[in-house]
Write a structure and sequence with these properties.
Number of domains: 1
Helix content: under 10%
CATH architecture: Sandwich
Structural class: mainly beta
Length: 114
C-alpha cells in the first residue's frame, strides 16, 4: 500500500526506483485535479542517508501525467550517491509546505507501505 501524505494542498507519495551506480533515483507522485495544477518547478525534493544529504543531480523539467479515474503527476529525481549509501529519509516540498517519508528499508521499485 502506498503512503500518501498531504503536502501543499495535494496528496503525494514517494517511491525509491533504483539505488545503483552511485545514484539514487526516486519518483514523487502527486494527485492533481488537472494537468495545469502543478509544474515540475513547484516540487522540491531532498534525500538523506542518515545525516548525509545526497546532492540533487537531476530534477524533471516536466512532469509526466497518468490518468485513470484520477490524475497523477509524476516527477523523477536523481541524487548523486558516490558512497552508495542507502537513503533513509525523503522530504518533499510543495507550495511552502513539506512532508517527510521514512524510506529506510524500502526495496527499490516497491512503494512505501502505509
Amino acid at each position: 500500500m502506498v503512503e500518501f501524505k498531504a503536502v501543499g494542498g495535494f496528496w503525494a507519495a514517494v517511491k525509491i526506483d533504483d539505488v545503483s551506480n552511485g545514484q539514487v533515483q526516486l519518483s514523487v507522485s502527486v494527485a492533481v485535479g488537472s494537468v495545469d495544477d502543478l509544474s515540475a518547478q513547484e516540487i522540491g525534493v531532498e534525500a538523506w542517508a542518515g545525516d548525509v544529504s545526497l546532492p540533487l543531480a537531476q530534477a524533471p523539467a516536466q512532469l509526466a501525467f497518468m490518468q485513470t479515474r484520477a490524475i497523477t503527476a509524476i516527477g523523477v529525481f536523481v541524487f548523486a550517491d558516490s558512497d552508495n549509501l542507502n537513503p533513509t529519509v525523503v522530504r518533499v516540498s510543495l507550495r511552502g509546505e513539506s512532508e517527510v517519508w521514512d524510506v529506510s528499508g524500502q526495496v527499490p521499485g516497491e512503494p512505501i507501505a502505509g
